[in-house]
Amino acid sequence: MKPARYKSLDVFRGLTVCVMIVVNTAGAGAEPFATLQHAKWFGFTLADAVFPAFLFAVGNAMSFAMKPGVSHKDYLLKVLKRTAIIFLLGYLMYWFPFVHQTADGSWAPNPIGDTRIMGVLQRIALCFGVAAIACRYLSVKYLIALCVGLLAGYWAILIAFGVPGQQLTPMGNAGALLDQAVLGIQHMYKKGHGYDPEGLLSTLPAIVNVIAGFLTGRYIARSDSKPVLMRHLLIGGAILMVAGLLWSLDFPLAKRLWTSSFVLLTIGIDLVILAGLITYIEIAGQTRGTRFLEVFGRNPLAIYLFSELFVTVLQLIKVNGEGLYDWVGIHVFQQVIPGAIGSLACAIAYMLVCWLVGYGLDRKNIIIKI
User: Fold this and answer.
1) Of 28, 194, 196, 269, which cross-links 188 as Cys (Cβ 3.0–4.6 Å)?
2) What are the extents of the domains in the chain?
3) What single DSSP character describes residue 172?
């Protein structure tokens, strides 16, 4: 008998997509709230917690998607296909809109030689691919050992192979050096000027976020007592958060470097949030507000991809030399609600547009699977 799926897991996934869109589309014309911006390097903000939560949700979903009886060949082909498609979508998203307007007003193709190779969807793809194979073939004991090895090994690699005295700096860390050598600066994050926040090496500790989500989903599905489950999630979350903060004394929290302490802290936060959702939805039986988030959770990758592409399209439409999305933020929202609140209001309005797209898909019972 297949274990019952908790509604709180779907709401959690929807929450991550909802907040991710708000963080990524702050309105122009004013500095956004500091907590809705990523830490410049070391540090931790609400914005920093969103992407690892999405990876955690990917692992949650994976724990329910694994069906018994599937042959090794079919399983591996499915994982490799999904990994390749998500990676390609991320790559094409950075190449989009494939053309640009030149100084004389004509249009020319964007050079593929300058397109960023790694990115958010690419990291999701690689983390999913590795975690899906590991979770299929390793027992819980060995999965935990793998997580410990990835986190400790990543720390050791950064210290051993980075520029001496600069191992945890943007340009001196081993991940930046590897990306420059393998990918080339022209294929890296443009604003990084030599480092990529979703680079190759820092993908290793991010795999742990997915495996943790898988193990959590598996434990939730097999739990008989919801109150006991909630307490265990809270205790586990608290322990991991404390462990992450203690480790950060030597290995600072840094989303852009995806440090191992950052991984422990974010997994702990995810466990606590899940415990709260289980208490609210499964134990107290409350449903207010859940439908809104479930819409995001039913088509998370499709809605995220739409949110990134549509804002790019809006920016291509120029109004007095400004991209349409920026123009709306400056000349509409900042006129009505000046400052950071106006910037947030613009992002929320755009998030609601994305929700309407998801709602339309949901009404027609369309689930876009990759």
Assistant:
1) 196
2) 7-363
3) T
